[in-house]
# Entry
Amino acid sequence: MPASIVSPLPERSLAIAQARRELIHGEASRARGSACVDSWISRSWQRCIESGRRPQQRVSFDPVSRSDSSDVAECNRALVSVARPVIERLSRAIADTRYFAILTDANGIVVDVGTLPDGADAASRYARDIGRIGVDLSEHAIGTSAIGTALAEQESVWLHRGEHFFDDTSVYSCAGAPLFGPRGDCIGMLDLTGVQVVERPELRHLATLSARSIENMLVMLEPCELLLHLAWPGSPSSEATEGLLCIDAGGSVTGANAAARQMLHQPLARSQHALHFNDLFALPLHMMFDAARRGDAVLEVPLWSGLRVQVRPQRGGNGITGAALPDARPRLRDVETALIRKAVADARGNVAEAARALGISRATVYRKLWRGRPAGGSD
# Structure
């Protein structure tokens, strides 16, 4: 394998070291230009300095209390259930790189972890320090990292070794992407971390795509009367580019994914004043319900901006009906059933293929589908 692949670029390490001398230790630059790191890294370093931190301070990777951990687990059951298949796929994709996946809540508390590297070496011990459910990996607890920085900046990030604030965390390289719920609020983040490994900045893209996959599933599980699939005319639709928009019986927008918010240039469900279908589309709402009843209709719909989008309306989405959710929060059993149904649909009815994608047995697929079937109903 070429040396350039297995060893870090020396100029990259030198640039990080120079940036630390200038921005953390306040040394004047002797170089022709000042050292550069991404602005969000320098902002995080500055927050750490302003809170009285110093790079030499030890980091203990403490878990939150048992009662707090229980509360975090309860609040994030649906997120963990939806993210678990994505984390398992990620674990297979990055298995040979010694990176691993971590899922946190919006406060940086670990709620799920992918497969950790095996071994009793120092790198494996560092991995186990952060790869524990309930550990606080927020910026307040461990300083600059992909986790705290992605949550603070609410955008995907990449950090390598010395770009972390504390010396104790300079063994890590990590990519992070924030996770946004159907109402546009940040609900957590997805992190890909390696210990004393080759820098892989391309993992920032993988983390971002995987985060979008989790967000899309959360929108598809949102109770609604209409789930609108949006695409630009002539553009191939994919999981990464398709907009998803939840509409209730009165026509109000109740949920959306990032692609829909960008396509329609609206905060949508995060807005203080609920947006209505008629605020966005220059088309009567009843035409969407009519198209949804036809089942396979795709409409080219004008927006008030003058643009047009292709819309495929789906009645009730793939989600869980409001009747099954008296507290408006998905139950773990219902989320599991919805995920399995989607996997079988994606596999065009091939249960064996769906089971392999989910990492479970065919018998489990059959059992959970049968348990989730309404009495007297059919799939």
